[in-house]
Amino acid sequence: MPRTLKRKSKKVGLAPGSLIYTGEKSTEKIRISIINYNEATLVEKELNNIEECYSYINSSTNTWINIEGLNDIKMIERLGLKFNIHPLVLEDILNTDQRPKMNDYDDYLYVVLRMLTYDPVERLISSEQISLILGHNYLISLQEKSGDLFEGVRERIRNGKGKIRKLGADYLAYALIDSVVDGYFTILEKIGELVEDIEDELITEPKPENLHTIHQLRREMILLRKSVWPLREVINMMEKEETSIIKKTINIYLRDVYEHTIQIIDTIESFRDMISGMLDTYLSSVSNKMNEVMKVLTIIATIFIPLTFIAGVWGMNFEHMPELKWPWIYPYGFWALMILIGGVMIMYFKRKHWL
Amino acid sequence: MPRTLKRKSKKVGLAPGSLIYTGEKSTEKIRISIINYNEATLVEKELNNIEECYSYINSSTNTWINIEGLNDIKMIERLGLKFNIHPLVLEDILNTDQRPKMNDYDDYLYVVLRMLTYDPVERLISSEQISLILGHNYLISLQEKSGDLFEGVRERIRNGKGKIRKLGADYLAYALIDSVVDGYFTILEKIGELVEDIEDELITEPKPENLHTIHQLRREMILLRKSVWPLREVINMMEKEETSIIKKTINIYLRDVYEHTIQIIDTIESFRDMISGMLDTYLSSVSNKMNEVMKVLTIIATIFIPLTFIAGVWGMNFEHMPELKWPWIYPYGFWALMILIGGVMIMYFKRKHWL
Amino acid sequence: MPRTLKRKSKKVGLAPGSLIYTGEKSTEKIRISIINYNEATLVEKELNNIEECYSYINSSTNTWINIEGLNDIKMIERLGLKFNIHPLVLEDILNTDQRPKMNDYDDYLYVVLRMLTYDPVERLISSEQISLILGHNYLISLQEKSGDLFEGVRERIRNGKGKIRKLGADYLAYALIDSVVDGYFTILEKIGELVEDIEDELITEPKPENLHTIHQLRREMILLRKSVWPLREVINMMEKEETSIIKKTINIYLRDVYEHTIQIIDTIESFRDMISGMLDTYLSSVSNKMNEVMKVLTIIATIFIPLTFIAGVWGMNFEHMPELKWPWIYPYGFWALMILIGGVMIMYFKRKHWL
Amino acid sequence: MPRTLKRKSKKVGLAPGSLIYTGEKSTEKIRISIINYNEATLVEKELNNIEECYSYINSSTNTWINIEGLNDIKMIERLGLKFNIHPLVLEDILNTDQRPKMNDYDDYLYVVLRMLTYDPVERLISSEQISLILGHNYLISLQEKSGDLFEGVRERIRNGKGKIRKLGADYLAYALIDSVVDGYFTILEKIGELVEDIEDELITEPKPENLHTIHQLRREMILLRKSVWPLREVINMMEKEETSIIKKTINIYLRDVYEHTIQIIDTIESFRDMISGMLDTYLSSVSNKMNEVMKVLTIIATIFIPLTFIAGVWGMNFEHMPELKWPWIYPYGFWALMILIGGVMIMYFKRKHWL
Amino acid sequence: MPRTLKRKSKKVGLAPGSLIYTGEKSTEKIRISIINYNEATLVEKELNNIEECYSYINSSTNTWINIEGLNDIKMIERLGLKFNIHPLVLEDILNTDQRPKMNDYDDYLYVVLRMLTYDPVERLISSEQISLILGHNYLISLQEKSGDLFEGVRERIRNGKGKIRKLGADYLAYALIDSVVDGYFTILEKIGELVEDIEDELITEPKPENLHTIHQLRREMILLRKSVWPLREVINMMEKEETSIIKKTINIYLRDVYEHTIQIIDTIESFRDMISGMLDTYLSSVSNKMNEVMKVLTIIATIFIPLTFIAGVWGMNFEHMPELKWPWIYPYGFWALMILIGGVMIMYFKRKHWL
Question: Which of A1, C311, C326, E326 could be stapled to B312 by a disulfide with Cβ–Cβ 3.0 to 4.6 Å?
């Protein structure tokens, strides 16, 4: 979270529309790839510079330009000029801490998504901004880093499976959003497993580390929620928007992914409930342990303190303590008394259900 | 909950409309049954394959096709083709983790319900998806497993009791939804009994197991709520929807079942309140017990520690301790002092209401 | 609460409109009374069977038929036939666990209220369903048991006080609702007294029983809220409804009782706040007591443990302990040391504000 | 709070519009004062009976009739007749537990406010109902007791300062409401001081009394909120209402006082947050104190219990304990062991940060 | 917070529109500066009195009058007369505790913002009211104190960078609001760092001071929220308002800053969640520490109390204790017993996972 803010504050005091990349700098090369397709033809290519793609764009094919890496601000600017993109959109693309949103600029839609991936080793979710610029016959997708969840979509374009080759760029945009949303399911599944593991641990043997994990899970739920809640609204807007870029035939698919986001939100809320239940379980497990410890102390102390007192009494050095001389007092008086007192106490504890 | 997600994530990366059954695989045979009826006639039959049912469908009778078991994807596909059902609907039927919803596809409505049944031995609620496809003169209901809550409805069709034979497929759909909602009442009753049992236990003798049961109840409340809340909206939409499939005469019945869902939601909220009150009761019962334990320790220790000190004093080996020689000191000095100190302390505790 | 559910589940699997009385069976005779009045005339009578009342109904007088006891299902059915009442309404009348609601059936309105009465001995609120069927010139009120809050209304009709004889059956319905709402105020007053009593007890001497009472109060608040919240909506609907049964002149009175329900809801919310504050007070009172107990233990133990150690030292049997022989050591050495150590500790505790 | 309810329940069972004063009875004389003014003229007078005021009312001047004390029901009835006021309004005037509201009776508006005053000695807020009847050229204000916050308004009328003499009775009503709202600020300021005082106390030395004060503050916040929330809505309605009684020129002033109520609500919410933070601070202060106490006990006991054991060992009376005879053992053996064990334990506690 | 109220209550009882400065009095001189610009020309000047600025205002240039310091009420009044500003606006300017708002006075808009600055030494946020009066070709900004966040905007005007010289006073107003919002990001970044620091501390070594810091952070979150929430609404109103003062071309920029406010609100909510998680962590860290302390006490006491009792037994002075004479009993009987008992207990604690 603070990372986001640090990046944002780099920009304080600059004019709106100033292009500064606020993400992590990397020396990785920018990857530009293009897929140009319609029902009949298919061209897939890696490009060296952005200008190569312009020739592909024409009204009879759909062009998907995918850019991974946002270090080259000049290139983004040239792209913006070519496709006539508003400077505020370019700023938002580079400012990689946007919340999901959709803006309608008449001849294109600008959509921001957050793609979440889960690192199973660090048990951390990392969040990456995906910007989509959707025109009538093209879709530009911009990612912060290489590596994405879109391989399945590319495969479907290559194979011509499903409707993807038959429909336009709007369906392609839907397919990408659907992949991102499917990614949320994958993460929720991983978190679900983690939740189950910890719940078992909490009952058998609670540890302070569990508390740490619970708080981390809570924070990841916040992150997920911050990605999904506005996305739900974005998809709803895409469905309702009066625009010719998204055709009516796509609505039924948008409705489907919209229902998926609701399902995710439902699951997040359930997990939040479960996680807060885990906190209760942890705290009361700890307090149960404590109570057990205290009970042992109390029982031992309560039994032996009076006994020790009696031993102390007969350890006194008064000259006139006649009982000290009775021959039977030690085995039959003292020890009998000890056993009596101890026994009465143990019975008392038993009746109180402390033992 | 995680089960749901595991099933969903099987589908990540596939094209929308790909048919994969995400429920539990079983080798059980699929049961297809048909009831074809109007006010005058009635045919009830078990079918071997789905194609047999097509001949029954005609505008003068209502046809209810009930399918139990979703393993045979091919059959679902053929059914989809015959009745002209959208691939996304077929996907949703097989994807048995939908939340209740209604989609209007002009010549049929697609309704998803969740049928809950309670296993009294395991004390667990199990949830099964019911899909309804409601056309003008037919209703197709699809269930994950054999066994349902619809026997009463079948009985009413056979006997011709009530209005069910006089009205159309829309009334039949209402009757099925009503049965599912009645099932929620049965579960709430069972949970209510469990709640009462535990409340009594919590007051008499709280155990760590109770905490476990409380959390389980809380989770079942979440499950119920996730089934009922959206169902309420579904029923409201069915009533309000501008469609010729649901006739206006049915609205009064839909209103009635709508009121039942509100009543269920009310009861769920009351139970949630009671369950969170039970958590408070448990925690303060435990802490009351702890306090009692601590008080006993304190009283015993506080009385005997000073007494032991005094016994220790007179157990010292100083040569010049003149009182050791006084003949009356042990019976009348020492023991009187002991009784005095003990008595004063007990009175102090009594005044403080610790005893 | 569970009682409600048990009754409901009797009906599971039956056709809608099946008449089964779900309330408590009683052998008490059903009381049917009629008051037929207009500004000039007044007839009040107890009837033996429901048919006797039909002759009174005519357009120039208002007829109030009051039925106490719902055991005779046949009679309810005949009543339904005579007044042309929908079977679902009859079902709701007998199904005495409805939440307050209003349904408009064009030539009559069906209103459900919950009348609450407080048993001061058991300190329990009992809830009874009142059904009103309001036609143009008649009002039928149906109660589960004999005994109600309507005596004041009857008195006003008999004396012709206020506007009740001058206005129609709609005003009579308003007057009954107003009586029920006034009953809520009476209950809130009783609960308010209970709350004040317990608050005083909690500060002076908290007991585990208080916790029980607090939870019971909380549950009664839930019951009240479940009766009042929907009633508020019902009254609002009655005011807004486009129906000729409720004349515009009545609106000002409905507005008045509507404001009363808001006032009740406000008070309930305040009580809820106070009750949850009481829980805090209880818990921190208990923990304060505990702290006091622990402090006493700590002080006594902390003072005497070192003293006992020193006495133990000089109780050792080493041959070469020269100080044992010093004649002044016991009175001036040992006791001075004891007083010094004790004094220092007490001063330390005083400075720490533990004493 | 319960006071309110007690008063309300006096009325249970009476016809609506029955006039019964539910406030505190007092033998104080009722004060009736009139201020008749326009830009040019000003008459201010104390009246003996309400009838004297009628002659002043005319269309060229504004007449403000202020009545302090509601004991004389007959007078209220005569007033009602003269100004043609609905019986339900008269009932509400006398029923001094209304929540703030506005009712539009076409030729006058009825507005209920709650005037809060703070008693600095008892540290209690007292609440008084102010009823305003606003006609085209007159304003009648009715108070429960003598003494109000309107002296500033009277002064402005006398001096002709500001716009008050130039504008109508609607502006006067605004001025009174503004005075009442300013009174809320005064109370919030006093509470703010109290909050600051207690916060300091909580950190330096928490006492059980603080808890009591915190709960009282919480209750006063509820009282304030119950007065301000509906008032905000009343002012909004006055601004939006389609009525000729409130001219459009007044709207800007109503908007101003509306913004003040929002500011008050904001402050109340902040205070509520602070007060609930104070509860946390109190509880954790108390638990910190407790922990400190327990630590001292633990340290003292843990150090001396083993030492006492060792002293006990060498206090045993076995004949064959050769070390008892070694001459150096007491000073160099026993005491060195004591210092060693004590030192090791203190170092252990230091390392654990318990000391 | 109380400061705000103290200032407000200075005004209680005055007529609306009375000008009284409620902020902190200071003897600092008021700074008036003017920037008059269009695309071609630029004049920047410090003025001695407000009248000097009037000559600059004309329809072909934009004039930005910035006033720092509000002590000179007369000057504010003259400014109000010159620009025809409503007295309530002047009152609000001087009443420096407004919440953010926008009022449309047809030929100018009045906007209130709260500029927050963070003092890194005191770790405190201070809040200053910024009033903007936006006319067709002028913008007047009024600040309580000298020093602001607008230097970047001035620089852009001087350099002619971005669109600021090309667009009107409405864009200038946007630029100032954007600077204020950017300031919120700076503060959130600082708070984010603080949150991270404290989280680390809480896990390694919780201190009571942390609790204090947590509560302070919570209060600062409240302050931020009170500044941002209404500002979001203000910006939305500016975008939606039907006014010629804000041109349609500015909307896209307002939308951008609107999205920033949503992002800030999101972050505030995340921080609130994290801070409340920190409270949990703190409390359970403290309780973990406590448990550790108690365990040590229990273990030491539980082991040594029985041992001390046995030593006490053999320290008794009975004449007939035959074992005292056995030569092997001390080394092989007593010590062996000690080691046995101690060992058994340690094993028991190990098995219970207390060691």
Answer: C311
* Most A CBs within 10 Å, among B12, B218, B302, B345, to test the A interface: B12
H or E element, residue C22:
none
Is C294's CB within 8 Å of B291's CB? Answer: no
In angstroms, the separation between the Cα of residue D25 and the nearest Cα of chain E is 30
- Cβ–Cβ of E16/D309 closer than 8 Å? no
* CB nearest to A329's CB, from E267, E294, E318: E318
Query: E16 and D319 in contact by Cβ < 8 A?
Result: no
**A311 and E309 in contact by Cβ < 8 A?**
yes
Across chain A, what does the average pLDDT equal?
A: 86
Q: What is the predicted ipTM?
A: 0.76
Average confidence (pLDDT) over B243-272: 91
Q: Which of B82-96, B261-275, E9-23 has the lowest mean pLDDT?
A: E9-23
Q: Say if the Cβ atoms of E319 and A316 lie within 8 Å.
A: no
- In this predicted structure, what is the pLDDT of residue D37? 93
D contacts of C316 (beta carbons < 8 Å): 311, 314-315, 330, 334
How does pLDDT run across C55-76, given as a tens digit for each residue?
Answer: 888 888 999 999 998 888 888 9
Please name which of D265, E304, C286, C96 lies closest in space to residue B288, comparing C-alpha atoms: C286
Residue A8 pLDDT: 55
pLDDT in tens, C271-314: 888 888 888 788 888 878 878 888 888 888 888 999 999 999 99
Q: Is E305 on the interface with D (CB under 8 A)?
A: yes
Do B185 and C286 count as a contact with CB atoms less than 8 A apart? no
Alpha carbon distance A307, A311 (integer Å): 6
For residue C305, the distance in angstroms to the closest alpha carbon of chain D comes to 7
CA distance A313 to chain B (A): 5
Position D3 pLDDT exceeds 50: no
Q: Quick one: CA dihedral E229, E230, E231, E237, positive or negative? A: positive
pLDDT value for D142? 95
For B262, which residue in chain C has the nearest alpha carbon? C99
pLDDT tops 90 at residue D292: no
3-state secondary structure chain E: CHHHHHHHHCCCCCCCCCCCCCCCCCCCCCEEEEEEECCCCEEEEEECCHHHHHHHCCCCCEEEEEEECCCCHHHHHHHHHHHCCCHHHHHHHHCCCCCCEEEECCCCEEEEEEEEEEECCCCEEEEEEEEEEECCCEEEEEECCCCCCCHHHHHHHHHCCCCCCCCCHHHHHHHHHHHHHHHHHHHHHHHHHHHHHHHHHHHHCCCHHHHHHHHHHHHHHHHHHHHHHHHHHHHHHHHHCCCCCCCHHHHHHHHHHHHHHHHHHHHHHHHHHHHHHHHHHHHHHHHHHHHHHHHHHHHHHHHHHHHHHHHHHCCCCCCCCHHHHCCCHHHHHHHHHHHHHHHHHHHHHHHCCCC
First to last CA, chain E: 50
Q: What backbone phi and psi angles, to 5 degrees, belong to B46?
A: -95, 135
Q: Is the pLDDT of residue D258 over 90?
A: yes
Distances (CA, A) of E354 to A203, A289, D300: 16, 9, 21
Cβ contact, residue pair E301, A304, below 8 Å:
no
Query: A5: helix, coil or strand?
Result: helix
Enumerate residues 6+ apart whose C-beta is below 8 A from B31: B46, B66, B67, B68, B69, B146
The mean pLDDT value for D44-71 works out to 88
Q: What DSSP element (H or E) covers C102?
A: strand C101-104
Q: To probe the interface with B, which of C105, C296, C339 has the most B CB atoms within 10 Å?
A: C296
